Structure formats: structure tokens, C-alpha cells
Amino acid sequence: MKIILKRTIAILFVCLSVSTLSYAEDDNKIVIGMSAAFSGPSKNLGYELYNGMMAYFEYINKNGGVDGKNIEVLAYDDGYNPLPAINNTLKLLDEDKIFLLMNYVGTPTVTRVLPILKIFETRDIFLFFPFTGAEPQRTQPYMDYVFNLRASYLQETAWLVANFVDLARPKIAVFYQADAYGRSGWDGVRKALSKYGLNIVGEATYKRGANFSSSYKEQVEILRKDNPDAIISIGSYAACAGFIRDARDAGWDIPIANVSFVGSESMLDLLIAQGRENSKDYTVNLINTEVVPDYTDTSLPAVKQYRELMANYTPKLPPGVESSGNLNSDFVADKYGFVSFEGFLNAKMLVEILKRMNGDIKKSRIKDAVLGIKNYDLGIGETVSFGAGQNQGLNKVYFNTVIDGRYVPIKDWSIFKK
Amino acid sequence: MIVLFGIIATATSALSGWYIYTGLTDEFKTKGTSIARIISDSAVGILLNSDPATLQSILDEYLDIVGVSYILVADSGGVIVSHTFVPGIPENIEDLSARMSKKYLNTDIDIEPFTITESDDLLNITSPILGGVAGYVIVGMDLSLIKSQIISIVLRQQVLIFTIFLFAIGLSYLLINRISSPLNRLTEHATRLASSDLSDFKDISSEIEPIARSSKDEIGDLAQSFVFMEGKLQDSINQLAETISAKERIEGELGAARDIQLNILPKHLPQKREIELQAKIEPAREVGGDFYDFFFINNKNNIENVKGDSSKLFFVIGDVSGKGVPAALFMAVTKTLIKATASMDLSPSEVLTKVNKELSVDNDACMFVTLFCGMLNITSGELSYCSAGHNPPYLLTKTGASELVQENSCIALGILEDAQYLTSKLTLNKGDGIFLYTDGVTEAMNVENNDYSDEKLKQFLQNLDSSDPQDIINNVYNDVVNFTDGASQYDDITMLAIKYLG
């Protein structure tokens, strides 16, 4: 009750003060607000997304910014929890008077922030390219305040279902996080299956925030009872890696698919480390869907640029955010990954939108600038389009599997045939 | 008492536990009902939009409320489209879901107890969405939480009550101890006081002075009384000690006086073949008023105590009125005067007349002395004598004992300045004796306050076999002592016996 009251007061306060926001726009810089997980079991996502984005923004700033304006990012840690995400958002809007919000991480966080955006409807506050494929920010009543770049979970799960059905694996079970993110993926699988007249054969959940070290044997037991042909996991890298470990330890070699949000490199990191410890290969029969192309495919201009910029970039935590525990060792070592590549693409897309305001960069012009993007070539072999009723720029889903400890695009699905 | 207290505490806790249980159960029902209704109202649009993610985020928000165990939303077909179960949906919930979808076609809230596992104590609160046509919401309230809460509350209550109880006991103990400790110290003190020789009060009193100073209550008063009493006691004892030392000093002096007094009595018996003489004095106190004396007077009027050729033996026995030091001093004066006067070769009556004069002058203390004196011519046996109010001596002859006849009974010395004393005379035969005594002999009292009496003395003297002065005095003295039988001696006992051998 106290929190609700506090929040209401804060919202009212923001409402009153937002009227001054339009006058607070700085002539020399564009301040972008970000709330993401920099701590907790999903901290790698925020860290990598932030650094992919910053690599590009720093490159733009070094080259004169956008119409002479530097881009700055104020990033706060929400630990992948809704309440801190709400508080961070209110702070960014009220105190920091940011120009726009960008690169939020997670469904449970973003779905709770959405109503704030609706309240600020008239203030031209937009959330760009959240790192989630959930439906609420792609549908009414919130789709007008959010612009997505990545494909949705519905699309990721629909393609997974389609491929499994093709592989004669129609009995699909879902392992998912007991929250809006998990529900979103679960719903995607359900809807995709319903097109084939099928249902989810079994489901098991885990609590958000669960660690890799937690036991997932119960979930393995529950799902195994229903004897599925494949499992689609909608979770965080820590929990999904833990589930894979316990399933494989139970001698269950069923194909397990994860969606883009999992943080593929972080998950692989954990599985390889565990495999080394147990002298076992935990990376077989894995499928990971991604919403960005293979970041090693330098034939793509965006990948090339990404790798060039990252090569000269030092990953870091946002100012004011303190380190908590070890971060993805692969990323720290190589600086490349799907998540940071997505951060990079998000930044690149945003800069293009800012540029399209032709020197008159104002909140009120954002929406028109976005809606003007049609068939824009981001350099990944797929064009971006926005428009009325279309607040998602990309639609393609990429499939990878692990071979020799590395993600490689799946070229031949028959390896997963039953 | 502890058991009784335990029963009361347990009963109180049980009662409050029961009230809390019913109260909280009602509150859980109300809470669950509100949540179920709110979700069912807000779920309509979301369900129609087919947006389970938003629905899920709503459910998650309510899951944080205390007591909410799970929430599920099912669509009109009974398919659970959103729920909060981890790690999976329990089987009986799926069954329930199917049952509910058939049941509902109204807007009533349904509340029923439910269990998922055996140990559960749940309350399923079902709220239909749009009267059931759009589905329903089930909120599972965990009543076991109430029980565990009550147990923890009751336990804490018990702990609190017993803590207070123990604290109170501890406090009472301390208080009682605070009261009884000084009391015990006072008691110990009193015991020590009783068994001590009271020689050093300061050491003893210093034990309880702190109590008297620090305690402002009755115990302090009592201790104060002790200190006061001991102060007084100490004063008394000091006074007593002073008195005792004064008494000891006086006794010492009296002892010296007794020695002096005994010394002024003749120490040596006469060494004459004509007479045998024996005397005894037993003062009742250190110093007494009785005396005797004997000496010889020769022709040149010189006094010879024991030897020489003197033929006149002067003897005297006296008894000064009163006792103690004044009597002793008066006796000394009298004896000295008598001896001095007798040396002038005067007759007994002349001696007494002169001495009486001397004594009577300036006799402010109004002391007097009874006295018998005699002068025996040891060659002729002629005895002249004079009594000044004294007990008549006994003449001891072969025929027995008889009182010496006093022709003129005269007044004691020291009373009348001009009193006249007359001399009586008789002649002793060979073998005759005289026995002189003071009233200490005849008035000696036994424990029944009976006098030894003149008759008894006369009887005893008459029945005596021996005529030896030594035997007479010893026998009379022994008889008197036997008569008094341990009763304290009231008066000086003095005896003088003379036997005329010729």
C-alpha cells in the first residue's frame, strides 16, 4: 500500500513537472535513459546490451555527434525486477529529464513500465527497442509509446514450433519463467501450436531470479512425465542452463530450444564451465533462436562495423552502477555476442532516426521520424520498416546451435529429426 | 505457582490465538475475495485481447500480498491461461479448473477449502469473469500461514509472558534480598553481640552502621535503634567499668585499712604464768567497729604489752556503733584514747570518764561505742571493771558461767559528755576465767533470722568442759558458725577470754 501510494505521488509529481521537460531539452546533447539488469542472474544482458550500444554512440560522438549533439546514456540497474524498473523510469523522466528511453531489458520490467508511458502520452515519451519480444508493447494499448526493432517472442516461438512440427516433433513442452516474460513465450508457443490444432503437452515453471546452482530436477520430472518431443525454454540464461544441466544429467537428450532473451553466450558459458567440471558435453541438442544475425558473419556490413567498433572499445559498467559478481567471461574476453550486437543495432537504428529529424531534434518530432523509416538497410541483410500499426522494425528469426563450443547457424535441421 | 501461571499464560495465549485465527481467516477471505474480484474485473479486456503476458504481470503483482499462495486465470473453456504455480500446475488444480468451468454461469464468489498436498490448508476463492462466460479467477489463500503466524505470535507471547514472569521473580528476589539481607545482617549482628564480651563496641557496631545510614525504611530504623542501643550499652558498660575500678580501688584501700586495723590490735599474747589470754576478732566487712586490747601497766605507769614485771593487766573490748570505715576510725580513736588514758594508772571508771569526754566533744557524727574494760591484778586476782553499755561478760568458775554483775550500768561512750562511770570490783580465784564478747556473737543470725541469743551463749559456756581460753573462743566461734549455717555474717564477732591461774 505504501509503495503504491509512493508511486502515485511520484507519478503525480512527474505529471506536474513534465510540463517543463520540453524546455529542458539540451541544445548540445541528447540524453537517453536506460533501465536494465546490471545485477542479479540476468546482469549479463544489461551489461552486454549497454556496451554494444555505447560502442556505436561513442563512435558517433567522436565523429561529431548527431547534428552536432553528443549522445549520452544514463543507465540504472533494476536487477530485472519490476519495482526498481518503475522507480528508475520515474527518476529518468522526472529528475534526469531524458530525451527518450532505450534498451530496457526484460518483459516483467517493461510491461510494468508501459503504463507510465501511457500516462505521459502527451509528453512524447517513447521507449525504443526494449530487449524483449513480449506482446504488450507490440499491441494496444501501449504500442503507440514503444518502438521495437527485434522480432517478437510470438515470432521466435512460432518459427520454433513450425520447425519442430516439420521435424515430426509435435509434442512440445514449455519450461518457462513464472512471470510476464515466461507467459509471453508460453502464449507464443500455445498460439503457434493451435494453428496446427495442437496443444502444449506439458509445462513447468521456475521463479524469476533463480540461479544456475538451483535444482531444476523437479521441472525435468514434470516435463518428462508428459513425454514431449521437444522443449521450448522461456527463461533467463542462469535458469535455462540449470534446466539443461539437470535434464542432461537425468539422461534426457531431447532437443531444448531457447529464445533470444536467454542471453545465448552467457548460457553457453555456464554449460561449458559445467561440462568441463563434469567432463560432459551439455551443449548437444540445443537450439537458440536469435533476432539478430550471426555476429561472426562479416559479410554483413553491420557485423563488420560492429566488430570494428567493438575492437576499439573497452566494455564498462555504466557510471554509477556498481559491479556485482562475474560477468560473461566470453564477452569480457572477446567483446562480441548476440546481445551486444543487438545493442549496437539498436543504437545504429536510433541514430538514423535522430538524423532524420534534420537538425531539429525534438521529442515531438520523434514519432514522425520513426514512422518515416521504410525499408531502411541496417546492414544485416534485412530492411527495417516502421509505420502506422507497425511498431516493430525487424521480423526475422535466426536459429543457431552449438558446435565445438560455438554458436553456428543451423543449416540442416535434419540433425534434430526424431 | 509457576504451574498455575503457566496454565493462565497458556489459556490466554490459546484464547488470543483463537481470536487471531478467526480474525485472520476472515481477513484472508476478504482479501482473497477482493483480489479475485479485482482480477476478474480487469481480466475481461485482457482475456479478450488474448494478452496472457499482461495478465501474468497483474497476477504477479498480487502474488506478493501476504497470504496469497497462487492465482490462476482460466478462459471460458477451462484452459488455464495464466497462473503463478512453480514448478508446475498441480493436478487437482487442473481438475478443479475443469469442474469450475462447468459450474459457473453466475456472478457469485465461491469460497471453498482446498488442499494441494496433504499438509496444505488452503482456501480457494473463485470469481467468475463476466458471470463465467469469459472464464474465472481462482485465488488460493494459504491458511497455514495464519497458523504458523499464530504459533509464532503465541510463542512470542508465551516467551514475553514468561520473560516478564521471570523478570518479576528476579526483581522480587532482589527486593526481598535487599530487605532480608540487612535483616540477616542485623540478626547475625544481634547474635554476635549476645556472644561477644562487649569489650569493643566499635568493631561490632561498624557492621550495621552502613545499614542504618543507607536504609530509610523500618530496617534502617531498626539498625539505627541497634546502633543507639549499643551506644547506650557502651556508656553503661563504661560507667560500670569505672564503678568497678573505683570499687576495686576502694576495696584495695579497705583491705589496707583492715590490715592497719588488725595491726593496731595486739599481736602478741601475754607471756605471764599467772594468766592465759586469748582473743579473736572476725569483722563482718573489711573494716569493723569492734576491737579489743590488753596490756600491762607497771608501777612507773608505763605500758608493757606482754612481758615485764607489771602486775596490772588492762583489758578492753568494745563495739562502735555503725560499721565500716567511720566505725573503724572511731574505734581506732577510742582504742588509742583508752590506751593513752589507761597508762595514767587510773581506775577503769576514771579511764572511761576521760575517754568519754574526749569522744563526746565535737562528735558531729553522733557515733558511740559500747565498751567493757577491766584491770586485773594478776598477783591478787583482784579485778576492777567498768562497762559502758556493753554486753556483760561471763565469769567462768568451777560452778559454771554467770554474768558479771554490773553494779552501775553506764551509758555508751560518746553520747553524754558529762556521763559518770563507776568501777565495780571482785576477786578472781585461781582457775576462774572471764569471757568477753560483742553482740556480734549473741546477735549472729541464721537463715531463719533467729538470733544466737544470750541464753544459748550462757548455756554453751556452762556446758563447756574446757576452761582454756583458746578452747573457749574456738568452741564458741564454731558453735556460732554452725548456728548461722552459712548465713552471711551481719556484725563483727569479737571475743576475749582470760583465765586466772594465780
Structure description:
The complex is a heterodimer of chains A (418) and B (502). By secondary structure, chain A is an alpha/beta fold. Chain A has two domains: 2-150 and 297-387, Rossmann fold (3-Layer(aba) Sandwich), CATH 3.40.50.2300; 153-290 and 399-416, Response regulator (Rossmann fold, 3-Layer(aba) Sandwich), CATH 3.40.50. In chain A, 41% of the residues lie in helices and 15% in strands. Chain A has 13 helices and 14 strands. In chain A, the strands form three sheets. Chain A has a seven-stranded mixed β-sheet, sandwiched between helices. Chain A has a five-stranded parallel β-sheet with strand order 2-1-3-4-5, with helices on both faces. Chain A starts with a helix and ends in a 9-residue tail after the last strand. Chain B has 502 residues and is an alpha+beta fold. Chain B folds into three domains: 2-148, PAS domain (Beta-Lactamase, 2-Layer Sandwich); 198-264; 270-500, Phosphatase 2c, domain 1. Helices cover 49% and strands 20% of the residues of chain B. Chain B starts with a helix and ends with a strand.
Q: What is the strand and helix layout of this fold?
A:
The complex is a heterodimer of chains A (418) and B (502).
Chain A: H1 2-18, E1 29-36, H2 43-62, E2 70-77, H3 82-94, E3 100-102, H4 107-119, E4 127-128, E5 146-147, H5 153-166, E6 172-177, H6 180-194, E7 202-206, H7 217-225, E8 230-234, H8 237-249, E9 256-258, H9 264-278, E10 286-290, H10 301-311, H11 329-334, H12 338-355, H13 366-371, E11 376-377, E12 383-384, E13 398-403, E14 406-409
Parallel strand pairs in A: 1-2, 1-3, 3-4, 4-5, 6-7, 6-8, 8-9, 9-10
Antiparallel strand pairs in A: 10-13, 11-12, 13-14
Helix pairs in contact in A: 1-3, 2-12, 3-4, 5-6, 8-9
Chain B: H1 2-49, H2 52-63, E1 68-74, E2 80-83, H3 91-103, E3 110-114, E4 122-129, E5 135-142, H4 143-195, H5 201-205, H6 209-214, H7 218-264, E6 275-282, E7 290-297, E8 303-304, E9 312-320, H8 324-342, H9 348-360, E10 369-377, E11 382-388, E12 394-397, E13 400-403, E14 424-427, E15 433-437, H10 439-442, H11 454-462, H12 469-484, E16 493-500
Antiparallel strand pairs in B: 1-2, 1-5, 3-4, 4-5, 6-16, 7-8, 7-9, 9-10, 10-11, 11-14, 12-13, 12-15, 15-16
